[in-house]
Amino acid sequence: MEAASQRSQLSGERAQRIVDAMRASVAARGVAGSTFDHVARDAGVSRGLLHYYFGSKERLLAEVVRRDTDLRMAALDEQLARASSAADFIALLRGTLEDLVAQDTEFLALSFEVFTLSRRNPEIAAEFGELVRRTRAQVAQVLRAKEAEGVLVLRAEPEAIAEVLFGLGDGLALRMLGDPGHDHRATVAAGVLAVGALIG
Amino acid sequence: MEAASQRSQLSGERAQRIVDAMRASVAARGVAGSTFDHVARDAGVSRGLLHYYFGSKERLLAEVVRRDTDLRMAALDEQLARASSAADFIALLRGTLEDLVAQDTEFLALSFEVFTLSRRNPEIAAEFGELVRRTRAQVAQVLRAKEAEGVLVLRAEPEAIAEVLFGLGDGLALRMLGDPGHDHRATVAAGVLAVGALIG
């Protein structure tokens, strides 16, 4: 509850500047190297303000990932809503994975970092769990709507399909980024085949 | 090359003690909190020796993950070799995922941490890439052998199927651990259905 009320004060340009500064700092220095001093200087705010809003670097990192996830989910929602067939829907998902690997590696690395932190920090664990639940619910809702429109036939529960889509996407991205020299076209095709068993 | 030759000197009980001490330290203090001083004291070796063998904490972490992966792969190989049908094979994979989530959360967290480090450290990136390639090749080999025995029909390239299996396993484990209050039985069942499209 405290986190939610602090967050509500954080709308606006200044909050966004802090989040952007943290994102840039983590990209350049890693999480371990990104201190409140760095972020405060880069964002042009006082260290005290940063501390007041976020309490800890871990909380600020979770906030960066939360905002990025919300933006990505909104974009995904909008794309998927346009799908006019199961093949179309799955092709959009494949494109999302390919974009993630080509352009947004930092986002993926940050998400895994929040997971790692969540293993030792109950507050971050609560934030991470909330992200997992929210993304699942949101994609499940799109799946249900598409089924109601007659665009998709779902062969498992919408929430379960959503988890498989995210799980496969994150896990494949991890391996594709880990071995960039490998030709992953056959892997992506196999992923499409697997997802096709759930979305007809 | 240097890493490989240093590694060859590292067989034996002392190396294992160092790796075990690092694993225990990371579980208790996280990577950021695990210094060479801690690990040297816990392993009963000098800080200089640790430095000589591993050079950096990140290298030692990569070594922990490499050894754990080798052990897990050997166990998985042995299990999968016994499968007498596609359903059996997929059930064994499902069991591996369930064990990972129930018992080996630290291993998963460490693997993601090595991925995170690999984004900013070329040496760790090389180690991580090697892990990705080795695990893919090893499972692809089991898949090929099982196809040759007439136990499985593969509906995509063995390497591609191996990537999907690891990707889905890691990604689902991440989400299952991130939201432990959720009932994941339907998710696991959907994962089994998806994998069934690749392994008949």
UniProtKB/TrEMBL annotation, chains A, B:
Keyword Transcription in record: yes
Keyword terms, alphabetized: DNA-binding, Repressor, Transcription, Transcription regulation
SUPFAM superfamilies linked to this entry: Homeodomain-like, Tetracyclin repressor-like, C-terminal domain
UniProt cross-references to Pfam families, sorted A to Z: TetR_C_6, TetR_N
Gene Ontology molecular function: DNA-binding transcription factor activity; transcription cis-regulatory region binding
DNA-binding region coordinates: 35-54
Domain HTH tetR-type residue range list: 12-72
Keyword Chaperone on entry: no
Signal peptide (UniProt feature, chain positions): none
InterPro entries, per the entry: BetI_C (IPR039538), Homeodomain-like_sf (IPR009057), HTH-type_TetR-like_transc_reg (IPR050109), HTH_TetR (IPR001647), Tet_transcr_reg_TetR-rel_C_sf (IPR036271)
Protein's name according to its UniProt entry: TetR family transcriptional regulator
Record organism: Baekduia soli
